[in-house]
Amino acid sequence: MKTELILLCHAATHAMKSGRFPNAADAIDELEQARLPKLASMFQPDRIITSPANAAMQTGRTFGIEASVDTSWNDLNYGLWQGRPIREIHDEDAVGLGAWLSEPGSAAHGGESLEALQTRVRGALEGDHGAGVTLVVTHAIVVKTVLAIVLDAPLTAIYCMDLEPLSTVTLTRSGETWRLRCKSSV
Fold first, then answer.
1. Which is nearest to 70 in space by CA: 1, 114, 135, 11?
2. Side-chain half-sphere of 64: how many Cα atoms within 13 Å?
3. Residue 69 CB partners (closer than 8 Å, separation 6+)
4. Which of 6-10, 49-53, 63-67 comes out lowest in average pLDDT?
5. Are 50 and 137 in contact (CB under 8 A)?
6. What are phi and psi of 150, to 5 degrees?
7. Phi and psi for 148 in degrees, rounded to 5?
8. For residue 132, which phi and psi values (nearest 5 degrees)?
9. DSSP bridge pairs for 4
10. Do the beta carbons of residue 117 and residue 51 sit within 8 Å?
């Protein structure tokens, strides 16, 4: 039987809208709450997995079924930059920020590099997801990393991707290989 994995970027937070690096405690922005009921009618997953981040868990509760939390799908560890304005980081450490924005091995913030995130996410993809549809509520950077893995693209490809809050990517697997699946919107 086929396995389908729907990767859903969590709803926007105030930090996202104000140009700050995320913090695990960030809640969904109040204006985003109104978008969530429609989301629940769009998908009928067999199971839900969320990142342990507050915004991911809040988004996951929209579906009305119990979600399990899996740290493998957690956001990148932004280290010293967590919760801080991007502009402030730029003013303090433009070279470090530039390296992080162009070199997947960089961890100028003292947290996790994109290469480390890729290793963690690859492990999550290799896990047993069971037959049926699993909805994973996670973070845009994680979904971008998954796309690089599945498409066998260099990790630098994530610098060319923009994913909006509540956007989805669907993967299917029959056997050992994940495939990107784009569904018709009509």
1. 135
2. 9
3. 49, 50, 51, 52, 57
4. 63-67
5. yes
6. -65, -40
7. -60, -40
8. 100, -165
9. 133, 172
10. no
What global pTM score does this model have?
0.95
Structural element, H or E, at residue 49: strand 47-50
CA separation for the pair 147, 180 (Å, rounded): 8
Rounded to an integer, what distance in angstroms lies between the CA atom of residue 107 and that of residue 55?
24
Give the integer Cα–Cα distance in Å for 147 and 172.
12
The CA distance from 138 to 144, in Å, is 11
* Cα distance between residue 137 and residue 115, in whole Å: 21
140 close to 159: Cβ distance less than 8 angstroms = no
CA angle 123, 51, 84 (to 5 degrees): 110
Residue 146's SS3 state is: helix
The answer to whether 6 and 132 have CB atoms below 8 angstroms apart is no
The string of pLDDT tens digits covering residues 141-171 is 999 999 999 999 999 999 999 999 999 999 9
Render the burial of 111-137: b for 16+ CB within 10 Å, e for the rest: bbbbeebbebbeebbeeebeeebbbbb
Q: From 114, 109, 39, 120, select the one nearest 73 (Cα to Cα).
A: 120
Domains identified in the chain and CATH numbers = 3-181 (3.40.50.1240)
Which tokens belong to 71?
């740290």
Q: Which helix (H) or strand (E) holds 140?
A: helix 140-150
